[in-house]
């Protein structure tokens, strides 16, 4: 038996151990009973995973019935959630991104999970990665329990890289390496003046600009905890903004806006006409449908420093939940090793539990380290794996980059700040407004938004 497979078996046993312990602890307590509504949004192909999660929970807690309140799209989900709270009838438990939960925490409609977690005999705060836990603290109390700890990474078409003789990206590659690859892989094959293959696909939003601003040494806001203004008008922040916008206007390695409206970046990557895609872990279940080429992931390129943006969702408990013991039992199970393993196997999440993130449930056949921080793992030959491994082969990249992750503010009005940024700098990405004017306008529009956020927080 090889060392690799010995490591695999040890990791599996480590994963099973806490799961059995969780069941034993639960059996010694009074069983909860009641009904729980669970609201969330995922793509239709991911819904089966949550149905499996609920089925597994029902085996452990047969006295609790979980009713699914699923919405396929994020915009529709947040609209329904807002309407539900306004009507006094929100779901008992819901899954939400850390950038959006502040509006509900500020209104006092969430029961903090911190006290419940401290009393848990199944999971403990130290079992989780630190950065997502900090993102869901409100007034020093943990409000919601993180499910995942993803980051923005570079998805790349290995076949296109190899055909063009471009080195595949590796840890530590630079902005220059990134740009050179994108330029080389942007091609007009028939010489008709129309780009047939783009080097890169990336949306023109704050959550894509941010890592480049940070990597250039700049900042988005003056204070992540208590932001009062955007800080985009500095040489460092401008350098990051300029590099990002130049990908579109100067180097033309990304599709134009009309091209994106005709076919989105994700579809272009899947059909092999875009070589790289900047996205979080969210797209993996969809990309696993690709059968025409090999693909993998790499970390973001390094500017003046390494920087990444946290992408994390958490289970929140509403104050209106009637059967709170039952609702907490579901949240606890969903974030136990057994529950997180179910969702991790879909490919969508980077588990927030350190043990599951470093297990075969997430890393596939890779050995598990069980420690917080980078995981030292060798590169795997995709061609030699056959059916034993679901891509991406380099899933460890998501763990390797955790030390570099930074979060955005979680004030109640933060979604509005993002809207102000996207309506200005996002338009500058396509040349509709000059950078100077975009920075000034975004900063001005955000002033009142920050003030309202401060008032909501009682400052």
The percent range for helix content is: 40-55%
Examine the secondary-structure arrangement and name the CATH architecture of the largest domain: 3-Layer(aba) Sandwich
Main sheet makeup? 6 strands, mixed
* Shape designation: globular
Global Rg: 22 Å
Per the CATH scheme, the topology name of the largest domain is D-Maltodextrin-Binding Protein, domain 2
Number of helices: 21
How many strand elements? 14
Domains (count)? 2
Strand content: 5-15%
Q: Average pLDDT, to the nearest integer?
A: 89
Q: Specify the structural class.
A: alpha+beta
CATH homologous superfamily label of the largest domain: Periplasmic binding protein-like II
Q: Output the CATH class name of the largest domain.
A: Alpha Beta
Unreliably modeled segments: 1-28, 366-388
Instruction: Report how far the terminal alpha carbons are from each other.
Output: 62 Å
What structural keywords apply?
6-stranded mixed beta sheet; globular; 2 domains; D-Maltodextrin-Binding Protein, domain 2; disordered N terminus; alpha+beta
Q: What is the strand and helix layout of this fold?
A:
Blueprint: H1 3-27, E1 34-41, H2 47-60, E2 64-71, H3 74-86, E3 93-97, H4 102-106, E4 110-111, H5 114-119, H6 130-135, E5 137-138, E6 141-142, E7 145-146, E8 150-151, E9 153-157, H7 158-164, H8 175-184, H9 206-215, H10 235-249, H11 257-262, H12 265-270, E10 276-279, H13 284-287, E11 295-298, E12 308-311, E13 313-318, H14 324-334, H15 337-344, H16 354-357, H17 360-363, H18 396-400, E14 405-406, H19 414-422, H20 425-428, H21 435-456
Parallel strand pairs: 1-2, 1-3, 12-14
Antiparallel strand pairs: 3-13, 4-13, 5-6, 7-13, 8-12, 9-10, 9-11
Helix pairs in contact: 9-10, 19-21
